[in-house]
């Protein structure tokens, strides 16, 4: 029978457990409607197994249940605030042009929803599965946004960099590869965000820099890195607590009133768009998210800025009134994103910048000076192949793919994240 959506009923009997002081524990019947990924919704999808994880936000308790019988499964859930995470294997059919089934395939899928308030005895919860895809291309392997401190204890911010890694067994070309910073701040609440596509099918960006090249000028071999630096120099000359970025592949340079430094020996990235009228630098506390994507150099920066302009609005709640904020940025389709990394601060986190299709978690550095300065986020190693090539983790979940607050940033070196 063709299945377009699948209903899981997570049953919790509405019982009350009396305590000596007559306190009670309320439980709720939670009905979850999980819709199939749009990509395979019309291909007779069937879930063969699934694992539910419900994390109580207040207590940290995790309810986990593997489900292999559908459509009904049961949980006892106490009232509270929960993060819901479902991992599943889905089988679907491939058909030819005549509609004849020619193959059966399976994919890993996931559905997530945070801060679900479970109460009142009954709750209907809609969830949408998305297909989990591991990288078959470049991945962001390290981000250093926090800067270092000098021996005198002053902040030094000129040594920021991004490291990108060829996570495949084939040579890839970096021509047209872009680094983009998300317009949404992960420590702010965006109430009544409009349009909906701003966090569903779009990645909204407010700064984009591109690697030049006609298509085959910058080959990156399997297991090799690409370093994009703010200022591509040996920073130990100015700060002994920093490191050498003179071997970077590219640097981003903003030609504005001599506020930036251009190292002539290292090629510049092309500024495609930027919210900053002066110079751009990644947020030093890591409050933004980052993506890489390809934008052919046949598309000019001017054309991109015009055709990808994106207007959005949200509401800020103050103690006296609600204020509607109207903003402008640029957006690409989530399908065009090669890799995404959400960054934030645990004590301030409010929400992800992108759709869970791109990243379901976030990574971070410490929030105190001793855990922040000189610390980066580094992607962990999944395995090493027989020929010695490192394969980095890519679960589309930065909370497990990355080592948060890694000591000793190492531009151009992977495999040292533990």
| Spatial separation of the terminal alpha carbons | 48 Å
Number of domains: 2
Q: Show unreliable segments.
A: 1-20
Summing up helix and strand content along with how strands pair, one would put the structural category as: mainly beta
Query: Can you tell me the overall shape?
Result: globular
Helical fraction equals under 10%
How many H/I helical runs? Answer: 3
Give the biggest sheet.
Answer: 8 strands, antiparallel
- The whole-angstrom Rg is 24 Å
Mean pLDDT: 88
Q: State the total count of DSSP E strands.
A: 30
Beta fraction: 35-45%
What characteristics describe this protein?
2 domains; 3 helices; mainly beta; disordered N terminus; 418 residues; 8-stranded antiparallel beta sheet
Structure overview:
- Keywords: Signal.
- This is DUF4876 domain-containing protein.
- Residues 1-20 form the signal peptide.
- InterPro entries: DUF4876.
- The chain is mostly beta strands.
- The protein folds into two domains: 5-131; 138-407, no CATH class.
- Helix content is 4%, strand content 44%.
- The chain is built from three helices and 30 strands.
- The chain has helices at 301-307, 369-372, 398-401; strands at 5-10, 27-35, 46-56, 62-67, 77-78, 80-95, 101-118, 122-128, 130-131, 138-144, 148-149, 155-156, 161-166, 172-173, 177-182, 191-194, 202-210, 219-220, 225-229, 250-251, 267-268, 270-274, 289-294, 309-317, 322-333, 337-342, 375-379, 381-384, 390-392, 402-407.
- Strands 15, 16, 17, 22, 23, 24, 25 and 26 form an eight-stranded antiparallel beta sheet that branches.
- The chain is globular, with a radius of gyration of 24 Å.
- The model is unreliable at 1-20 (pLDDT under 50).
């Amino acid at each position: 029978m063709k299945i377009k959506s699948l209903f899981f009923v997570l049953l919790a009997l509405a019982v009350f457990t009396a305590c000596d002081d007559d306190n009670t524990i309320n439980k709720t019947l939670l009905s979850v409607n999980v819709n199939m990924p749009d990509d395979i919704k019309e291909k007779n999808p069937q879930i063969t197994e699934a694992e539910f994880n419900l994390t109580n936000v207040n207590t940290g308790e995790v309810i986990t249940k593997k489900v292999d019988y559908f459509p009904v499964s049961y949980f006892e859930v106490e009232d509270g605030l929960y993060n819901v995470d479902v991992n599943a294997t889905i089988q679907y059919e491939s058909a030819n042009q005549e509609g004849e089934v020619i193959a059966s395939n399976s994919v890993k899928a996931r559905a997530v929803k945070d801060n679900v308030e479970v109460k009142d005895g009954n709750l209907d919860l809609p969830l949408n599965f998305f297909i989990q895809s591991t990288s078959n291309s470049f991945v962001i392997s390290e981000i250093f946004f926090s800067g270092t401190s000098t021996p005198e204890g002053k902040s030094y911010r000129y040594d920021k960099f991004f490291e990108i890694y060829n996570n495949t067994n084939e040579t890839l070309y970096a021509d047209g590869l872009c680094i983009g910073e998300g317009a949404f701040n992960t420590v702010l609440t965006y109430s009544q965000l409009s349009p909906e596509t701003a966090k569903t099918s779009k990645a909204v960006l407010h700064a984009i820099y591109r690697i030049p090249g006609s298509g085959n000028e910058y080959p990156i071999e399997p297991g090799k890195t690409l370093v994009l630096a703010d200022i591509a120099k040996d920073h130990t000359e100015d700060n002994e607590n920093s490191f050498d970025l003179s071997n970077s592949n590219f640097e981003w340079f903003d030609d504005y009133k001599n506020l930036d430094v251009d190292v002539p020996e290292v090629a510049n990235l092309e500024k495609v768009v930027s919210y900053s009228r002066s110079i751009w630098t990644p947020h030093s506390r890591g409050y933004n998210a980052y993506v890489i994507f390809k934008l052919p150099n046949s598309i000019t920066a001017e054309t991109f800025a015009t055709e990808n302009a994106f207007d959005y609005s949200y509401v800020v709640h103050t103690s006296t009134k609600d204020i509607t904020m109207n903003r402008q940025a640029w957006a690409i389709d989530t399908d065009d994103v090669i890799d995404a990394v959400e960054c934030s601060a645990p004590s301030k986190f409010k929400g992800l910048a992108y759709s869970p299709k791109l990243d379901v978690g976030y990574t971070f550095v410490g929030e105190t000076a001793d855990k922040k300065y000189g610390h980066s986020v580094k992607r962990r190693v999944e395995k090493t192949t027989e020929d010695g090539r490192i394969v980095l983790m890519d679960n589309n979940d930065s909370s497990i793919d990355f080592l948060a607050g890694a000591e000793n940033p190492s531009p151009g070196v992977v495999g040292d994240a533990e």
